[in-house]
């Protein structure tokens, strides 16, 4: 019934998963100039703060933001709601805005026959999740822009993704879709309402996640082994990663593989897990998905080779990849990984950071090429042979043949006269002669090719990249989404804190502290103890809230709490831990399912209008908030000894038992939590003065080793301290011979005290 209603009944489909990917770079958008217009007087979206909504403020569409005004209008006028969801850096959202939402005729249909609602998915992740569940269940996939038609009671009955404006040979045009839905609403409304109720009931049953009659979660060893096997089946041996194309970085998978290696390091499976993660990270670091000039990573690759990316840059990718590359450095000691992590954080500091300490959401994929007026995807990042020759003409001394810096640079990064973007990514031939920089040879091979030392080549390439940075500054930059979200800022606090601690970079830890202070100053309501969803930077550099105040969702609490726990371990400042505990209490109050276990994505009161209240069950480009919460509960239990938080973690994992058993690969971050819960956490206690060098040496030792199931506790010997009040056993742990001393505690059993980092290292590797 669902498929019949959403697809066959109207002969509609959104863009298939392969549609936008095949055209991700240099695709001809076929944007129509016919009958397009932009209003001189803006619509009501002009009063919003969201960059995405503001991009539609001059459309000839009577847009409403998500809210009661729109719902009341739909009920009073008996009209269906047209809901369009996207985000500011979405390339295909831009395409549909220009092709369809600027079209005067389409605008009249949307304004007269529908109540049209525009939603920024990053402001309203609850709305996005509910209706994306519908679209994915009723079509071959999902994506953005997401376009869904609703009854006045917000029940979905038709959905899709991108629609071209007019009919084509294989696709129904958006105008035709609107006219058919308008006619069906007038002629067969009763049937539509009945069917939409059936669809919603079916989705509600399918999305229910509960403990049922189970008392315990599944066995971690079996679930983690199955997760590893499922990943191995789809692993790309040649290029790394876990799909054909498009190929996403998926840090949650890499984190699982490192944890699996740590638990099985003496086995062939453990070695295999490490190899899969390391190879994937190296191939991404060498590929075009990494910005070799400005640093940071693009959203995903449109091919198996990580060569041609979709060029938007998202904050959450930078945060998670900074951690993944830092973990790879912990595991291997290879400075390639630490260099990449530092490069990511350098990019964020320079391009995605607000002066007050917060972090912006994203940079767009599109920008205006030099001498043109129309934005194109990737224009900011592409290079021609002539550009590089002109920019880098200097001769290279000591080479075995006449060689300029430009020639060396082009050889190493795969730049060719005809361009290195294949026809699959450029079906219209618009990007001939353009190149995405991608490392084609190791430093040693490039050096050997020209009879140079590897270190000489490294310095020359650094010089070349710096010159390209300066030239790129003259280009038109992609648009910046100046929205600052609590969840993604929490992720970024984790990124800076973990990298700073592991790499021994105090300035990175300080930036994490600045980020946490920003969260407390701008995204935390002291009177209620609740988080706000987000805030915005103004042109003058100040920070302001949205015109409609948005309270935080589950993901905001989960990621901020994790960031604060990581920051406590990096800085040793217990104030961050105390705030994390207060936020965890608030999260439990607002989102915990007392009957079924686990956390809902949104508050019951705030999501009252939506037909579903979901628990996210997918670790995708971001880990699900329930997966992160499971880790947080385990860590907080270890910091406090409070049994209720361990009980919640067990109940959460039990609620997701079916998913964990059947498709653990869908929840690799939760599988990690399940393993830690059943292995138990190592409480590493350092007794010593926070300022002492001997204390610092032991802390540095802890940070240098990858131990996924640990918490780090700094005890300064003060019985009245916050942690000593939480964990009374701390007062029994003493320094040995007045030296900073470490203890490793598991299952309430303490190791013998050690005072030397080498001894502590042996304990942690047991």
Describe this structure in words.
The chain has 766 residues and is of the alpha+beta class. Among the domains are: 44-207, Glutaredoxin; 220-346 and 362-481, no CATH class; 680-765, 3-Layer(aba) Sandwich (Glutaredoxin), CATH 3.40.30. The protein is 47% helix and 9% strand. The chain contains 29 helices and 21 strands. Strands 1-3-2-4-5 form a 5-stranded mixed sheet, with helices on both faces. Strands 19-18-20-21 form a 4-stranded mixed sheet, with helices on both faces. Strands 8-9-12 form a 3-stranded antiparallel sheet. Helix 11 (251-263) packs parallel to helix 13 and helix 21 runs antiparallel to helix 22. The longest helix is centred in the N-terminal third of the chain and has 19 residues, at 189-207. The N and C termini lie far apart (56 Å). Residues 1-34 have low confidence and may be disordered.
């Amino acid at each position: 019934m669902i498929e019949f209603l959403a697809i066959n009944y109207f002969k509609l489909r959104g863009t298939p998963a392969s549609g936008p990917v095949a055209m991700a770079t240099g695709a001809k958008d076929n944007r129509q100039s016919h009958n397009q217009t932009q209003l001189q007087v803006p619509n009501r979206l002009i009063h919003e703060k969201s960059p995405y909504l503001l991009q539609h403020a001059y459309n000839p569409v009577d847009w409403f933001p998500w809210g009661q005004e729109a719902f009341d209008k739909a009920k009073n006028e008996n009209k269906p709601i047209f809901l369009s969801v996207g985000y500011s850096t979405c390339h295909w959202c831009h395409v549909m805005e220009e092709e369809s939402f600027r079209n005067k005729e389409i605008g009249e249909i949307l304004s007269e026959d529908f109540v049209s609602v525009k939603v920024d998915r990053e402001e309203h992740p609850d709305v996005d999740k509910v209706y994306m569940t519908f679209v994915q269940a009723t079509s071959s996939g999902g994506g953005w822009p997401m376009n869904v038609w609703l009854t006045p009671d917000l029940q979905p009955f038709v959905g899709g993704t991108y629609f071209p404006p007019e009919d084509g040979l294989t696709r129904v045009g958006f105008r035709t879709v609107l006219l058919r839905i308008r006619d069906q609403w007038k002629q067969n409304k009763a049937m539509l309402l009945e069917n939409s109720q059936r669809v919603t009931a079916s989705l509600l049953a399918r999305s229910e996640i509960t403990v049922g009659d189970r008392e315990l979660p599944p066995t971690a060893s079996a679930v983690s082994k199955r997760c590893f096997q499922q990943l191995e089946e789809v692993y790309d041996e040649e290029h790394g990663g876990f799909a054909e194309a498009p190929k996403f970085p998926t840090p949650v998978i890499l984190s699982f593989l490192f944890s699996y290696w740590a638990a099985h390091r003496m086995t062939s499976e453990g070695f295999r897990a490490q190899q899969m993660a390391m190879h994937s990270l190296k191939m991404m670091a060498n590929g075009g998905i990494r910005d070799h000039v400005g640093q940071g990573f693009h959203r995903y690759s449109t091919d198996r080779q990580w060569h041609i990316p979709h060029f938007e840059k998202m904050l959450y990718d930078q945060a998670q990849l900074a951690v993944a590359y830092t973990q790879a450095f912990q595991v291997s000691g290879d400075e390639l990984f630490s260099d990449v992590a530092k490069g990511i954080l350098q990019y964020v500091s320079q391009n995605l950071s607000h002066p007050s300490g917060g972090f912006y959401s994203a940079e767009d994929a599109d920008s205006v090429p030099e001498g043109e007026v129309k934005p194109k995807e990737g224009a900011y990042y592409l290079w021609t042979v002539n550009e590089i020759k002109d920019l880098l003409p200097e001769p290279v001394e000591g080479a075995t043949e006449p060689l300029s810096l430009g020639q060396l640079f082009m050889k190493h990064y795969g730049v060719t006269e005809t361009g290195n973007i294949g026809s699959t990514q450029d079906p219209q031939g618009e990007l001939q002669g353009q190149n995405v920089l991608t490392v084609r040879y190791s430093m040693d091979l490039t050096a050997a090719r020209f009879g140079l030392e590897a270190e000489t080549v490294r310095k020359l390439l650094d010089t070349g990249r710096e010159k390209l940075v300066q030239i790129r500054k003259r280009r038109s930059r992609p648009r910046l989404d100046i929205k600052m979200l609590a969840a993604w800022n929490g992720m970024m606090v984790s990124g800076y804190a973990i990298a700073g601690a592991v790499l021994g970079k105090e300035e990175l830890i300080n930036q994490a502290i600045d980020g946490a202070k920003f969260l407390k100053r701008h995204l935390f309501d002291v009177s209620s103890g609740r988080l706000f969803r987000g805030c915005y930077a103004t042109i003058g550099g100040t920070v302001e809230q949205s015109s409609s105040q948005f309270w935080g969702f589950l993901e905001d609490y989960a990621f901020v709490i994790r960031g604060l726990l990581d920051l406590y371990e990096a800085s040793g400042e217990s104030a961050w831990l105390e705030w994390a505990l207060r936020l965890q209490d608030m999260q439990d109050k607002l989102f915990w399912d007392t009957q079924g276990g686990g956390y809902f994505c949104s508050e019951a009161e705030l999501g009252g209008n939506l037909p579903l209240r979901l628990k996210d069950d997918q670790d995708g480009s971001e880990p699900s908030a329930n997966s992160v919460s499971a880790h947080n509960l385990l860590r907080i239990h270890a910091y406090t000894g409070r049994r209720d938080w361990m009980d919640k973690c067990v109940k959460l994992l039990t609620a997701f038992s079916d998913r964990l058993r059947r498709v653990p690969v869908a929840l690799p971050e939760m599988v990690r939590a399940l393993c830690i819960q059943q292995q138990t956490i190592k409480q590493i206690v350092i007794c010593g003065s926070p300022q002492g060098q001997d204390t610092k040496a032991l802390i540095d030792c802890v940070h240098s080793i990858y131990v996924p199931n640990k918490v780090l506790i700094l005890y300064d010997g003060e019985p009245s301290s916050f942690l000593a009040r939480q964990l009374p056993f701390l007062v029994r742990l003493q320094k040995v011979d007045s030296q900073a001393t470490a203890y490793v505690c598991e299952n309430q059993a303490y190791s013998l005290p050690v005072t030397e980092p080498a001894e502590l290292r042996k304990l942690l590797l047991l």
